Amino acid sequence: MPKEERTERPSPAGPARPPDQSWAEGAEAVGAAESALPYEPTTGAEPSIRAGGPVAGTPATVAARSRAGTAPTTGRSKTGTGPAAASPKSGSTTGARDGGDATSAVRTGGDATSPVRTGGDATASGPSGGAADASARAAQPPGASASTGAAQPPGASASTGAERPAGVGTSTGADASARPAPRPGPARPGSRTRHTVAVLGAHLGGGMLAAILARAGIDVVLVDSPHDATTPAGETTVPYTAEVFELLARRYGVPELSALGHFGQLPAEVRRTSGVKSSIGFVYARPGAPVRPHQVVQFNVPSEHGESHLYRPDVEAWVHRLAAGHGAKIPQGRPVLTEVRGEAGDFTIELADGSEVGAAFVVDMSGPDAPMLRRLGPDPALRPLRHSSRVLTAHLRGVRPLERRVDPGEGGTPWTGGTTQVVFPGGWIQLVPFGDDRTGENGLTSVAVSLDAKLWPQRSASAEEDFQQLIRQFPDLEWQFAKATAVRPWTGSEPWQYGANTAAGDGFVVLDRSAVRCDFTLSRDVTLTAELVHEAAAHLIAAADSGDWSVERFRPLESFQAALIEHGDRLLRTALTATTDFRLWNAFCRVWLLHSMFAALSLKRARNDALAAPGRADRWRELERYRGAGLWFPVYPGFVALFDDMDRLARQVADNRLAPGVAAERIFGQLRRASFVPPLFAFGDPTDRYYNFTPLKRVKVLLWAKRRAPYMVHRVLTRGATVLPDVER
Fold first, then answer.
1. Does residue 100 carry a pLDDT above 50?
2. Could you tell me which of 271, 314, 280, 316 has the C-alpha nearest to residue 298?
3. Core-most of 128, 200, 565, 602, by most CB within 10 Å?
4. Reported pTM
5. In degrees to the nearest 10, what's the CA dihedral of 351, 356, 360, 361?
6. Spatial CA neighbour of 577 closest among 648, 669, 668, 495
7. Residue 409 has pLDDT above 50, yes or no
8. Which residues, at least 6 apart from 505, have a Cβ–Cβ distance to it below 8 Å?
9. What does DSSP say about strands 419-424 and 427-433: parallel, antiparallel, or unpaired?
10. How far is residue 265 CA from its own chain's centroid?
11. Do residues 182 and 142 make contact, with C-beta atoms less than 8 angstroms apart?
């Protein structure tokens, strides 16, 4: 921004409307948001913290910090003592399971990982196992060895009490770099020995949460749900998703989780069945006609992470081993849960083999028929979302590469190199290729279809036949799927999306797939899971530290989840409206990409700022406050305003109060005008449909950020003085 703009800023009412630019009608919100903050930061002292004492501030501030959900760092060693779990041979009690197609068996390091059912609690320690005396286990004190009943020091093996090698499984600068002593849970007097927390649902979200809680010293048991292997789930990431994974790894001291956002760091067997996502492409199709060459958009973002296509059966098996390796308890043989009895502080989880698991607190992530949902009141626990579409899913072989039929264009790359979304009025089809052989017809491809039921009503009881009737209306798609066969059977659901009315109950919370189900498009499913795990872990660790497991303690977590559900619903409603016209979709997908890119950069900046201030008890507070538009960390307000205005314009289009082309031009006008959008991106040019961020362009954007960008945008695009070299990643 030129110097004179620093003093001659637009008024809060926004810039004056140019008489010859109709798009400026919607610019007031963005203009007002840009003028809400000073161009340069105001200098002010950080809140003072007395050594060993409470944080200074107003009562409201102190109360807010007490709810922040951070684990205390005092008394923790800089060197870790956790087990190394990234290796495919790091132990687990896991057996091979498939999600309908041929999945690789879970690999274990010998029979040392075999769990033993003891004392009526059908669980065993993670990687060490070993026989244990039932009566000794039932009488052992908190922190005792699983096999000897003797008290063990922090960081000791759960089965032998032996000290683990220092430095294994640690992360530089992590908040929980050494395993703390086990934390007591809310046990009822006279009840038999129980786990502090039971996590129901041994999928990606449940496994990550169990690993984090076990790493923090909480006695946690991870229980399989009957839907873990059969419920379709998201399989793609974007740069923002990767940053949330990195935050989980750094904040909670589980460094292996960062591999989920850094494809090259995943175990070899996971990489073989998954795949790198080098692009995201949008192909606009119209019934009865071939795709027009100028109605395609492709973003090639050379991420520092290496975005992923995650083959969930193998990824979830690895995460399960990771949780066990960090000390989560696993029921013998992994029987699925059938029912939950009891009450807060004394829950009994019944398993399919007749055994039981005890827990004081339950985190239910098991699925839409979650047992804890019935405890949330007489009203329906789940509600349909406003974006209510039919969803069809399958894994197919024999899908022809779309680039043989639809040319990606001179500036594009093959569609099979990344995620492709074929968009048409009233819906979309997402294609996710797996493995190394992506350009041949023998590769495995995930297909997820989302349809507006009003425009595309169900015409067959068979989900596969429904899909075949759909693609017959699009010549390019009919050619692409002519020889495809299902490996994981077709599934269909109408409506697919739902959200929980409430989430916190007496002694439990309902999260993730038990509380919400959204479309797989734009990586919302995987991203939302990672965000909820981050927030839930903070609250659960804080509850264990304080001993406060009350319903009110988890109301902020309930509100956070509700806010993210609402954001996802708005995003997908806007996307569905944008399918009505390519011009509007062309504008929508640029706002989405800009939002995702700067969310990733802003989260990285906030994370690194926190890691660079290890002495501050409230250093994670700025990552626990919802800002709108799905953002819960410091971000330039113009991005929130841009998203909100796009949503407003889309609603006007949906209500037939605004033409799609007019709405598209107003969005493009905002992208051209906003001071926080790097001009080099050319997001405001509807004809520039290929985004390739080369090293030279990166340098030019950094120069723009240094010389012209608003300060908060400058901070996220450049390496700041507050960031330590060993923190930046």
1. no
2. 280
3. 200
4. 0.77
5. -10
6. 648
7. yes
8. 372, 375, 376, 551
9. antiparallel
10. 18
11. yes
